[in-house]
Structures are given as structure tokens and as C-alpha cells.
Design brief:
The protein is built from 8 helices and 11 strands. With about 240 residues, the protein is an alpha/beta fold.
């Protein structure tokens, strides 16, 4: 298994996605997975879905895609996000909506599990909602060594080793994981980071060296801000990017 790129929470931000893909291509990495929430909040959901399809990038179901496949899920969202999602559905072609219906709740690739929210397959549970007991139970009941997640827009590593849970943040350099430990790794957000750094972010995973690296990718934020405003989406989604 070669180095893979894990992206998440693009949120219809085509500028951010394109710059992330340029970064991935410059590193000659061909295997890419998306952890969902490719749509919502941003101005170009159709173009983002088309880009993922053109590049052959598989995606799992995010909570925003879930609301597209099941309108009753809209009740889960706050009023501003609900307004945005209703607008998003209008911006999607029938073909894109059909593609979204095909997204699975999770993917298992060798010793990895990919899920939007929280393992094993929830697109709606946030990582921070899980107690240490919940985390231990998750690691105990599931077989994979590493779970990649998104949803919070906040990069984080949770390590389970010798019966203990430890949480820590990414640095700027690749981090070597322990062969005898297990991990939940939140890869942050491509299109709407909320960790105090407004660069687009994604994670590289090398299964041979057992390393993870958080990549920081600048993009044209103001172009996306203007597109959000021009599309008539809630202003809050634009201002949050800066």
C-alpha cells in the first residue's frame, strides 16, 4: 500500500480543493480518499462533486450529504446551515445527487477505516462527544489499527496504547505512529478549517513508514468569499473562512 492522501470537509470550496489537489499531484500521490461533507456551506457543490468523480476519488457519506439523501435529516442542522443546505440542493444536478446517494457510511481499506464522524460508521457523531470510555470501547470492538475521521474541522490525533488514551495536536512535521498503538486521526478540513489557521488542510499517510503529516495549503480565500456572497448563501459561511 503506497502513501495515500485523506481529504475531508471540502464544503463546496472549489478553490481550496483545486490547490490541495495540486499539492497532492506535486507529491506524485495517486491514491486519495474523501471523508465526506464535500458539499454544504460553499458556492460550488456541483463542481466539487464533478471533480471528485473525474479524479476517481471515493468518498464516504458526510452529514451534509446525508441531508441531501434524506430531507428529514435537515432538522439536525441549525437554521443557518439548514438554509445553506436547501440552497445547495438547488445547485446540484440530478446526476450529482445520484452520485451522493452512492456514498457509503464508511470504507475499510486494509488496516484503515474511513468515516466522516465517528467510528464505526456515523456521519453525525462528533469526535469530541466521545468520552474516554467510549474511545476505549471503540478501539476494543473494532479491528482496524487506524481510523481516519473529519466532521469537526479540527485536526487531532487520539492514540490508544497500553490501555490508555492520549490526545495531541499535529505539528508541522511528519509524525511517526507507534506500531503497537491504535489511532483515531482527524484530518481537519479542506474547505472550511476551524482550528485558527485558514489554510486548506489534509493528511498524508505512509503505511510503510507508519507516518502521518498534516499539510497546510494556501488558496484564494477572497475568491471563495465573493462566490459565497454572489450565490446568496449565508454571509456567515463567507466570513468564517478569513
Amino acid at each position: 500500500m503506497t502513501t495515500i492522501a485523506i481529504i475531508s470537509d471540502i464544503h463546496a470550496n472549489l478553490e481550496a480543493l483545486e490547490e490541495v489537489l495540486h499539492d497532492i499531484d506535486a507529491l506524485a500521490i495517486s491514491k486519495i480518499y474523501s471523508l465526506g461533507d464535500n458539499i454544504g456551506y460553499g458556492p460550488e457543490p456541483e463542481a466539487v462533486i464533478q471533480t471528485l468523480e473525474a479524479r476517481g476519488i471515493p468518498s464516504v457519506l458526510g452529514n451534509h450529504e446525508l441531508a441531501v439523501t434524506d430531507a428529514s435529516e435537515l432538522d439536525w442542522f441549525n437554521p443557518v446551515a439548514r438554509e445553506s443546505l436547501l440552497k445547495t440542493v438547488e445547485m446540484l444536478s440530478p446526476e450529482a445527487i445520484e452520485s451522493i446517494h452512492q456514498f457509503p457510511y464508511c470504507r475499510v481499506e486494509e488496516n484503515l477505516r474511513l468515516v466522516h464522524g465517528f467510528p464505526p460508521d456515523s456521519p453525525v457523531i462528533y469526535q469530541f462527544q466521545a468520552s474516554n470510555d467510549d474511545l476505549v470501547q471503540t478501539f476494543t470492538e473494532l479491528q482496524e489499527q487506524i481510523f481516519f475521521t473529519g466532521h469537526t474541522h479540527y485536526p487531532e490525533i487520539i492514540e490508544y496504547a497500553a490501555g490508555q488514551i492520549q490526545k495531541y495536536a499535529f505539528g508541522r512535521k511528519p509524525l511517526r505512529l507507534k506500531a503497537d498503538a491504535r489511532y483515531i486521526i482527524n484530518v481537519g478540513s479542506v474547505g472550511q478549517p476551524r482550528d485558527g489557521n485558514n489554510n486548506a488542510k489534509y493528511v498524508l499517510f505512509d503505511p510503510i513508514a507508519l507516518t502521518v503529516e498534516l499539510r497546510f495549503v494556501p488558496y484564494d480565500i477572497e475568491a471563495t468569499v465573493q462566490k459565497i456572497l454572489d450565490a446568496g448563501l449565508p454571509e456567515a459561511h463567507a466570513l468564517r473562512l478569513r
